[in-house]
Amino acid sequence: MKGKEKNSNPIVVDLTQDILLRTTIPLDNHAALRSGFVGYPINPRWSVSKVRAWKTGRQLRQALQEGELMIRSSDSMLVPSDKEQEGISVCQIPTQPYKWMSCAEWVKQLFITYQTV
After folding, report:
1. Are 56 and 24 in contact (CB under 8 A)?
2. Are 89 and 72 in contact (CB under 8 A)?
3. Is residue 37 within 8 Å of residue 57, measured between CB atoms?
């Protein structure tokens, strides 16, 4: 790919107002990453790279709910939970479980969300 460069330097992304993440995901895909993290459905018009970012966001949320990741209290950074053993103060935020939809509900939500006038 001629004009595309891979960003090897991690940058800090706001997943939510209270949670930060250091990632190498390109800036163009940060919205999809946030959407996956907060539990929004996938956009069928997204490119493959955006879908991967969305899935990464979903995996991050699941890891946070399962206790594999924690929110570091000093800077609200999402970090692996084994950092707690190294003496870094972390706290776990309360999360709401994701409500799974049936296929029909999901399609109905897509029509409502993306309906054009």
Report:
1. no
2. yes
3. yes
Q: What single letter denotes the amino acid at residue 33?
A: L
Cβ contacts of residue 27 below 8 Å, gap of 6+? Answer: 7, 11
Given the structure tokens 């539990």, which residue do they identify?
Answer: 39
At residue 10, the pLDDT reads: 87
Token pair for 46: 């997204």
Q: Comparing C-alpha atoms, which of 64, 60, 67 is closest to residue 37?
A: 60
pTM: 0.65
